Amino acid sequence: xxxxxxxxxxxxxxxxxxxxELFMNEIRPKVKPxxxxxKKMVQTAYIIAFVLFIAxxxxxxxxxxxxxxNHYNLNIMIGAxxxxxxxxxxxxxxxxxxxxxxxxPQILSYAGDFKIGVKPTxxxxxxxxxxxxxxxxxxSDYNGGADNLLRMISYFTKLNLFSEFNFAYINEHxxxxxxxxxxxxYETELWYSxxxxxxxxxxxxxxxxxxxVNMPQKxxxxxxxxxxxxxTITTQTLVLKNxxxxxxxxxxxxxxxxxDPIFEKYYDVYSGDQIESRTLLTPAFINRIVTxxxxxxxxxxxxxxxxxxxxxxxxxxxxxxxxxxxxxxxVTHYENYKVIIKNFMTxxxxxxxxxxxxx
Length: 359
Hints:
The chain is of the alpha+beta class. Helices cover 47% and strands 19% of the residues. It has a nine-stranded antiparallel beta sheet, sandwiched between helices. The longest helix is centred in the N-terminal third of the chain and has 32 residues, at 35-66.
């Protein structure tokens, strides 16, 4: 195992070195003109933040001394400044999208046969729904339509890897082929909101209007990638972090004992078929998932896996966006892009080690 690890380390160093050449020759010249724009946007953001701080202090003093009846009213008035904070956020988001549009295609072409695919949105889903036959029902199949957000939400729910959510935001959709395997990679945010329908509560009723409505909660941030498994999958098998339970179909899924103390220190396995689960969870898979859990890298591997409907579905959670360049760091810094390529190659290394290649 140590020999394999050293070999992978040498391979990764070569990849990073060749990527540095790509950065210097192709990426840096294209993003350099945006540095002046970034500095101006950062300066504007600091000015807005300073003005917001001073205005908030003055407003709080005047309002608390002369007008405030209770803290609830005060909180509402202070909430009037939220649009300014949102404006600063959107400014940074616009900048990141500009850089991403330049850099991501370069990174994908370096990593292999990958490209940016169709991104499911509410608008594309609505357009497709309105243009379809009224008798046609929304299909929850994963491959039913890449631009249908409702299908993606349904599919992510079936994966049984996430706590309850009722909205998905797909930040990026990447499609490609790796060692003969077709891949779909979704950079995803999953949210839960009281005002949206969920599996337990179809919709808030008019009688609930007086109840408090909580702020939307982010339930998941990271990537979900999906590829066809050459092995037979007749039921669902889950690999979850310790103390995480399946949300759905608990009565059909039994805990699997694999007799690997290191693996079971971090993960629990649930499956509808004990024998099939042991066939899917190869020693290579178990060794790699434990190694990734212990490695200190930018991905900060927080992985869960769902074998379902003939596919391997892997969710890798992250606190940060996988493919964004930092707003408050110079656009020409190589380290910003090195993190992105390392994260992407880590995804591929998971598949590589699973030994599910079609080659």
